[in-house]
Amino acid sequence: MALSSAPSVQNVRRAVDRIKVRVPPIGLAGTLNVPPSVHGLVAFAHGSGSSRFSPRNNVVAEALNADGIATLLFDLLTADEESNRANIFDIPMLAERLVDAVRWLDHQPAVRGLPLGLFGASTGAAAALMAAARLGDRAAAIVSRGGRPDLAGDALDMVRTPTLLIVGGDDLLIIDLNRLALERLQGPKALEIVSGASHLFAERGALEAVVDYARNWLKRYLRHAQEPTSQSEHRRE
Q1: Which of 17, 105, 164, 178 is the most exposed place for a label (fewest CB within 10 A)?
Q2: CA angle 147, 119, 109 (to 5 degrees)
Q3: Containing structural domain, residue 155
Q4: 193 located within any domain
């Protein structure tokens, strides 16, 4: 029987370059994961009480890496700032730091110029939406997991980036907030409700559903954002 030439997920995981970084201007700690033959990039904005080590965000990131999409997971707050809970809900500050991270990524040889997606969880979703309103066409897609898009305020009316909102079916208040936010978004948009899932998607199969929804949305719109004249993949040097 002929052996398949397709690389296994485990082999792809081994091949990913995992680069520890400090995101300017204040040196926020993060990890930039760059797979072989990379053709897209997603920056993550974690939610309240979480960090770049979020197990759920890392599961999503690993799946994207296996699809050839680079990921940046970084802390939006310093250790000192995390001690003040008000900072967790300072959405303009978090959005500014996400924009700073994108500008920094645009100067990194391994990923510069790649189609960009934003992935936000909880309050990080509001930061991603507010950042997208500032980034304009630079952001090709947004995914929110259990997010609070309502906290983006008036920025919602300026977001034309294709946006997917994913909510747990048992997270009733968050469903209502996401439905209201969805109406205000100006670009392609969708709301996916994962049946039987709570806010953290800890139930069997719930996080897998998030991964499937997210990767399909991101692959679709990052592909659309690629230059039509470019037929080659962006390879690591």
Answers
A1: 17
A2: 160
A3: 21-225
A4: yes
Beta strand segments in the chain, E: 17-23, 28-34, 40-45, 69-74, 116-121, 139-145, 163-168, 189-194
**130 burial class (0-12, 13-18, 19+ CB within 10 angstroms)?**
buried
Q: Give the pLDDT means over successive 10-residue stretches in the chain (237 positions).
A: 42 79 96 96 87 90 97 94 91 97 97 97 97 97 97 98 98 98 98 96 96 97 70 42
Number of domains in the chain: 1
Does any domain span residue 64?
A: yes
Handedness of CA 211, 216, 219, 225 (dihedral sign): negative
For 106, counting Cβ atoms within 10 Å of its Cβ (0-12 exposed, 13-18 middle, 19+ buried), the class is: middle
CA distance 52 to 75: 5
For residue 6, is it within any domain? Answer: no
pTM listed for this prediction = 0.89
Evaluate whether residue 2 is within a structural domain.
Answer: no
Question: If you search the block for the tokens 């897609």, which residue do you land on?
Answer: 141
Do 31 and 21 contact (CB within 8 A), yes or no?
A: yes
| CA–CA separation, 6 and 45 (whole Å) | 32
Residues 232, 221: Cα–Cα separation, whole Å: 18
